[in-house]
Known about the structure:
Radius of gyration: 18 Å
Strand content: 5-15%
Helix content: 40-55%
Shape: globular
Low-confidence stretches: 9-16, 229-283
Largest sheet: 5 strands, parallel
Number of helices: 8
Distance between the termini: 33 Å
Order of helices and strands: EHEHHEHHEHHEH
Structural class: alpha/beta
Amino acid sequence: EEDVTTGAAPTAPPQHVRGLFVVFEGGEGAGKSTQVQLLRRAVEEHGETVLVTREPGGTPTGEAIRDVVLDADGAVTPRAEALLYAAARAEHCAEVLLPALERGEVVLCDRFVDSSIVYQGVARGLGAAAVARLNDWATDGLQPDLTVLLDVPADVGLARARDVDAPDRLEAAGAAFHEQVNEGFRQRARRDPDHYLVLDATLPVQALADRIRRHVLDLLGHDVDRAATPASPGDTPAPAATPGAASGPVVERDADPAPATDVDDVPDWLALPEEDPTERTRP
């Protein structure tokens, strides 16, 4: 089974970054988009300039690539898929993320490198280390200050996603694929707990928003006891959590491992470095 914990990028992020970079990760139907918008409102109320963006996307190039990789009728090989995501991410970092962070803005991004490591590296079987190395080069080593992981059982998340729209190419990959995705995210969070906020995404929307708001405002040095983020009109609670479920690091769920893919022939420049890639500082 792929060891996702080794699949982190090897170089330190650029030291000139001055803003705060928060990434939302999780399986399909986890509620990332909703939480991004609620956090945006809460942070802006404290006088911060906030940029909301997504991956793949955020630039004309990225949005065009998004159409290709998520097209339900399309066919993209796993390696091509990984390269397309990395290409979109390189453009996104250079044109959107780094400039905003250099201006001191709070950047809220729906998905980043962890999604590629987990979806393509683990669930597609390409190897977490190879995908991480590729994305380290694409991003010039940029890392989030905080990753909010919204953990939802695959069957629950996929049902939510189907209620919203027809499944895209990744959503249609099947429950076993998405269980591997979820377990991959959990492994990465366990490896670097100081930079992850792991939440049970079956909790009510507002309960999740309050936890995220307090954590991010604390990172920004604001008073976390100010009024909670107001709920959006029409907000409804998420399905009730399983009794006893924790809102911190979640209970592991078994997942069938993906068939191993031979990645011995990856180029040397994609090989995992010998040093521990998790021992890096953030801006």
